[in-house]
Amino acid sequence: MNHKIGILTGGGDCAGLNSAIKWVTKTALDTNLTAGKGLNVEVVGIRDGWKGLTEVDPNDPASLEKWVQPLDELIVRTWDRYGGTNLGTSRTNPFNPKNDQSQKCADNIKALGLTSIVAIGGEDTLSVAHKLHNMGQKVVGIPKTIDRDLNATDYTLGYDTALNVITEEVDRLRTTAGSHNRLFVVEVMGRHAGWLALEGGQAAGAHIILIPEHDFDVDKVASLLQRRRSFGVRYDIVVVSEGAKAKGREEVYISDKADGFGHKVLGGIGNSLAKELEKITGFETRHVVLSHIQRGGSPSARDRLMGRYFGIAAVDLILEEDFGRMVAYRNGEISSVPLKQAIEKLYVVDVNKYYDVERLNGIRSSLAPKSGA
Questions:
Q1: Catalytic residue positions, numbered
Q2: 158-194, pLDDT tens digit by residue?
Q3: How far apart are alpha carbons 41 and 25 in whole angstroms?
Q4: Rounded distance, CA 125 to CA 127, Å?
Q5: Under 8 Å between Cβ of 169 and 297
Q6: What does residue 292 show for φ and ψ, rounded to 5 degrees?
Q7: CA gap 277, 284 in Å, rounded
Q8: Are 282 and 229 in contact, with CB atoms under 8 Å apart?
Q9: Please, which pLDDT band fits residue 32 given cuts at 50, 70 and 90?
Q10: Which of 87, 217, 242, 325 has CB atoms 3.0–4.6 Å from 45's, for a disulfide?
Q11: 197, containing H or E segment
Q12: Going from the N-terminus, what domains does the chain have, and what CATH number goes with each?
């Protein structure tokens, strides 16, 4: 039996993607795995996510060279040590109602001779995978999002590296904050889920953490900061998710332009909050937006390992012909779940379990359930 596996990465880039690509490739081409099963396996990378499958012309050699990259063990040998995605990525949505290219995408999969697709991504990328599966395509998914907001998995690629970046950068800010007696407001990613802010802030020792799951009161934030200064503390760190908002207000956006999935680009809450806090408290205040810094850099050990485990598991699903599923990590074990279950709702911070609404920080209780991070 011939297998031609296409692999792509969609949505925002992050650490761990290249590791997953490497281990899908190595596992699929492993002669020990395929020996005796009558298999002939080929792996190709699709460039720039779903965009590659909608833009490619299977009958044009130049187009094929642009959008499709044959992969082998020698090519991917060192990929797991690098961040980002060597295949490129995009936020293209083949099912965008303004320009539906889903049938073209499905036709190109057939024309390219792809017998299965491995889609590495978050809610949006995997929602496309789910819809294509419903159209009869053989698709499996690998969870990736630094927000760690995918349901049915305790881990998503990129999260641990992003968490370490936040911790390191806040540590650096603390030294200059103390030197100048300043308040720093640090804006981190997190559209709907505040895991990065909550756990990054706790790891870095932030005094106040603001998350999308709980609207904050600016005056209360200011009061907590003023109280802390009354104890003689020279500086403060506030970590805020990009999707957090003050009570009675909307999220802050960089612009009203939306991507193919209807998402506008969040950003600016750190700046606006810093200005308000300086006005109320009189403290010299600065804001820092970590933004895409959280996505970049070399993968942590955990993201390299999880990329390996997820990649191997994805190939297992293909060889078992168990399509329409996403590999997952639950309760310390690698497993899989239906794509529908993975995207049906977001995994967000349970405020009652993990967040102290009085201190505006992580809950202080040894009885609090583990977050899965």
A1: 147
A2: 999 999 999 999 999 998 888 888 999 999 999 999 9
A3: 10
A4: 5
A5: no
A6: -75, -10
A7: 9
A8: no
A9: very low
A10: 87
A11: helix 195-204
A12: 2-157+299-343 (3.40.50.450), 160-295 (3.40.50.460)
